[in-house]
Amino acid sequence: MKVRGGYRRAAVTGGSAAALILALAPVSVRVATAAVAIPAASAISQSDKAQGAKAHPDLLAEFGGAVSGPQAAYVEQVGKTIAVQSGLSNARGDFTVTLLNSSVNNAFAIPGGYIYVTRQLTALMNNEAELAGVLGHEVGHVAARHSAKRQQAANRNQIIGVLGSLLSGVLLGDSALGQLGQRIASQGSQMLTLQYSRTQELEADRLGITYLKRAGYDPRAMASVLESLARQNALEAQLRGTSNRVPEWASTHPDPASRVRDAQSLAGKAASGATNRDVFLSRIDGLVYGDDPHQGVIEGNRFTHADLRFTFQAPDGFYLVNGTKAVSISGASGKAQFSGGKLGTGLVSYIDGVFAALTDKGQARIRPESVERATVNGLSAAYGVARVQTSSGANEVAVFAYDLGGGNAYHFVTITRSGGAAVFNPMFKSFRRISAAEAGQVRPRMLRVVVVKTGDTSQSLARRMAFADGQLDRFLVLNGLQAADKLVPGQKVKLVTY
Q1: Does any domain span residue 215?
Q2: Would the CA dihedral through 480, 1, 65, 11 be positive or negative?
Q3: Which of 8, 54, 163, 433 is the most buried (most CB within 10 A)?
Q4: Which residues contact 443 (CB under 8 A, 6 or more apart)?
Q5: Are 463 and 407 in a shared domain?
């Protein structure tokens, strides 16, 4: 989470930058497409270039900014190589390929030749062909004009933040109050995406595989990277103790396992084409893995921001997901989000502004019954609770804010069933400043490529992983290995270390 500037309302509309994203989206979502036929794109139009150029800076800001240096240059090289196979342009300079500084497994493209992949998803890959396959999939969405087809259906299917969808569906169950969840999601959520039908996802897979073949890569890489995503999603669910699927708001890539078999069938079983595994591993060595300390770090259920000098801890049974502008907190008994902005004239007016931002136009203003002042770990604080009646019953929306001085404030917004807001009291009380010494102890995790030595096993190498839990499982998934696989001296593998 990186807070800059004042408190803002982020509109979620079909014309926003987020609405342009062509992501590797859930295949289980089926949304009716418009009946009007839209031909495949044969070139990058001037209007698409202008549209992409306008959206690009906003997307960089929304997804953590661009990674620079040799790793980014390598991803750009591979992305342009695969993009020209689409026939949208033969000029490599017509494509802009960006490695994003985001800890979310994600890749997407927008009209105008703009292609994006996060460092987290790149770290999950095991060869250059997989990187080319993911980027080719996204280019395939552009070439098939899936964005235009989805926008034709936008009048029937509103584009919303997926956290908002989760909140309104699980806790609120009311179309009017569902706007509240959408507002919470739009305040800093970096996880806004169009969702495609299974047919569109399969079409993008097919095009990506075609591009792999044209570029001389092993087309089976599409299936292997989808399998890695499926295993990573299952592992994250296992470690969090949730269902065997990462909640949609936690990743724009819900379980892709159902597409693995289709990709394998399209690619064929015979080995053909290059994978460039060793080159790929050497070029991504040193990537930041997981949270960037400059955007805050999650350790278990604790969030610490070294630059902004604060920390807080989610209640037991809750887990956190760090976004570019906000931290989401999720548990069975409630949902919350943490963000911040300019204090303005004081905490009372600040809290009033947060509640105002949660209220959609035309809806009754959500107001707290009162705003109470408090002191938390030496910080001036205040909180308000609003009770809202919905078709599914009574719910409570709480805003708890802190004055950190220097004109800056931070706050939690929580949603629970009526009488349930107190579940977040330990979190509210845990928020505190940290010392320079504590801030100095926050270290980034790094992806390191090592060469297997005689006597090394998956178990021995996994003990070097910078995690307190699931070390062996994390090592196996990260390297696309199974428990029964034997390591060979001289083989390169990935580790996550401090």
Answers
A1: yes
A2: positive
A3: 163
A4: 293, 498
A5: no
- Do 124 and 237 lie in a common domain? yes
In this structure, what CATH number is given to the domain that contains residue 450? 3.10.350.10
Between CA 185 and CA 18 the distance in angstroms is 13
CA distance 444 to 366: 40
How many degrees, rounded to 5, is the angle at CA 284 between CA 282 and CA 288?
135
Domain shared by 302 and 274, yes or no: no
d(CA 93, CA 456): 44
Q: Report how far Cα 357 is from the mean position of its chain's Cα atoms.
A: 23
One domain for residues 120 and 245: yes
What confidence tens digit (pLDDT) does each residue in 232-281 have? 988 988 887 765 444 333 333 334 555 666 666 666 766 689 999 999 99
Instruction: Note the pTM of the prediction, 2 decimals.
Output: 0.77
Q: Give yes or no: residues 79 and 137 share one domain.
A: yes
Among residues 272, 277, 255, the alpha carbon closest in space to that of 220 is found at 272
The sheet carrying 310-313 orders its strands as 297-299, 302-305, 310-313, 432-433
Residue 103 in domain: yes
Beta strands in 353-485 (DSSP E): 371-376, 379-390, 393-405, 408-417, 432-433, 445-451
Is 228 within a domain? yes
Q: For tokens 């890959």, what's the residue?
A: 125
* Position 8 in a domain: no
Q: What is the CATH number of the domain that holds 399?
A: 3.40.1000.10
In what helix (H) or strand (E) does residue 471 lie, and over which residues does it extend?
helix 471-478
The model's pLDDT over 78-132, given as tens digits with 9 standing for 90+, comes to: 999 999 999 999 999 999 999 999 988 889 888 899 999 999 999 999 999 999 9
